[in-house]
Amino acid sequence: MELRVIDKEETELAIEIAGEDHTFMNVLKGALLETEGVTAATYDVNPEQSGGQTEPVLTIKTETDVDALDALEDGADRVIEKTEGLQDAYEAAV
Amino acid sequence: MEDYEVQFVDRSERSARFVVRPITPAFANGIRRAMIADVPTFSIDTVRFIENSSVMFDEQIGLRLGLVPLTTPPGEFERGDEVTLSLDVEGPETAYSGDLVSSDELVQPADENIPIIDLKEEQRLELEADAVLDVGKEHAKHQGGVAVSYRHLQAVEVVGDAGEFDDEEPEILRGVIEEQAADAAVETGGYEPENGQLVPTEAFEHDLTNRYPGKDVEVTDIDGAFVFDVETDGSFSVDELVVEAIGTIEDRATELKESIQL
Amino acid sequence: MMVPVRCFTCGNVVGEHWEEFKHRTREAEDPEDPAEVLDELGVERHCCRRMLVSHKDLVDIVAPYQ
C-alpha cells in the first residue's frame, strides 16, 4: 500500500492509495462516514482501460477543529473495530 | 469494538449460510469481495512434462491440473510460496487428481476423483508440477470461495386475509425469512412457527402461500441484516475462508494506519 | 474430450462427481434418474448440473488418430 498526498488542507485531504480496489476503499469510505468529525468522504477509481488515473483517490472533508489526516486514522481504526468485532462474533457462533 | 450477531442457518465443512447483523452494505460487500478475490489458495502454475503420450496436449493437461483444488491451511504459508507435486500414470488407466503426489503433506488435492486424462494402452503421463500460493484477483484458479453471495434477511407481514374468490397464485420468495407472523403460519419442512425464528424459503418450497395459507402477505427487507451464502472449493473450510477474508481487510486497515503515522 | 474439472459459470468442482454420475445414470443395470443422482451428489445449481448432463467422453473416439 503506497500513499501519495495529492492535496492537503487543515480540514480537507485528497490522497491516492495505490494497490487497493473497491474491496477495501468502499469499506473505508463507509467507516469514515460513521466517524465523528468527518463531514464528507468519497473515493474514485477508474478502470485500467481509461489510461488515466487508475489508483483510487480518497477525498475527506472534516469539521473545523478536526485534522483530516487524523480523521483518516480514526477511519482506519473504525475498520479494525468492525473486522475484530465480526471475527469474534463469527467464532462465537461456530 | 463493534458488536455483531452471527446466526447459522446451515453449516457444513464446505458450505454455510449465516445471518450477520447489524452490518452495513459496504462492509458486507467488502467481505464478499475479499472471500472471492483476496484469500490465497494453492494452485498448480508450472508443469514440467517428462512424458506425455496421451491424446491431450501438454497445455490442456496443464490447464486441468491448475483447476484441481489443493488444500491450503491458513497461516502456514506466504503468498508466492511453492510446493512441488508429481504425477506418474501408465495406461491403460485413468490419471486422477488423487494420483498427484505432493512433497508437502499440508498441500494435497482436496478432491481425489477428478479425472485428468484417460490413458490407453502404451500411453503414459509423467510430470512434475509447481503449485504456487496466490489470490483470486491474480487468476480465477486461486479463488477459494465459490458462488459467494449475500442478500437481505426478509420479514413477512400478514396484512389481511386473501380474498375468498382470488386466484390461487403462488407467492414465490427465495432466501431466508425471519418469522414475525407465527400466528398465521403453519408448520412446513420441520419449522414450527415461532416468532424470531430464521426459516429458509426451501422449508415451504419457496412459496409463501404454503407457509401462510389464505393470508395476504407483504415482504420487506430487514435493514442491516444480511444472509451470506458461502461455499468453498475444498481448499479450506468455510470457517477458515470467512475469518481469513475479514482478516485481509483488517490487515489493510492496519497497514493504512501505519503508513499514515510515518 | 474429458469432463471439465470445474463448472464454467461458478467454479464449483464438478469433475469429482463425473464417474459416479456416469455409472449411475448410464452404465448401471437399472439406470437412475439423472436429476435425483445430481441432487444426491450435491450438484445443486443448474450451471453445474448442465456440465455433467451435457458431457460426452470423447477420448475413446480420438485415441486411434493420435
Offer a few descriptive terms.
heterotrimer; A: 94 residues; alpha+beta; Gyrase A, domain 2; four-stranded antiparallel beta sheet; 2 helices; 40% helix; C: 66 residues; mainly alpha; 50% helix; 0% strand
Note the overall shape of chain B.
flat
Major sheet characteristics of chain A: 4 strands, antiparallel
Widest sheet: strand ordering of chain B = 1-2-12-9-10-11
* Fraction of residues in β-strands of chain B: 35-45%
The first-to-last residue Cα distance of chain A is 33 Å
Q: How many domain units of chain B?
A: 2
Structural class of chain A: alpha+beta
Structural class of chain B: alpha+beta
User: Which residues of chain B form runs of ≥5 with pLDDT under 50?
Assistant: none
Brief overview, please?
Chain B: It is found in: Cytoplasm. The complex is a heterotrimer of chains A (94), B (262) and C (66). Chain A is built from two helices and four strands, in the order E-E-H-E-E-H.
Secondary structure: elements and pairs:
The complex is a heterotrimer of chains A (94), B (262) and C (66).
Chain A: E1 2-8, E2 12-18, H1 22-33, E3 38-44, E4 57-62, H2 68-93
Antiparallel strand pairs in A: 1-2, 2-4, 3-4
Helix pairs in contact in A: 1-2
Chain B: E1 5-11, E2 15-21, H1 25-37, E3 41-52, H2 58-67, E4 82-90, E5 93-96, E6 101-102, E7 115-119, E8 124-134, E9 145-161, E10 176-178, E11 198-200, H3 208-211, E12 215-232, H4 238-261
Parallel strand pairs in B: 9-10
Antiparallel strand pairs in B: 1-2, 2-12, 3-8, 4-6, 4-8, 5-7, 9-12, 10-11
Chain C: H1 15-27, H2 34-41, H3 46-53, H4 59-62
Helix pairs in contact in C: 1-2
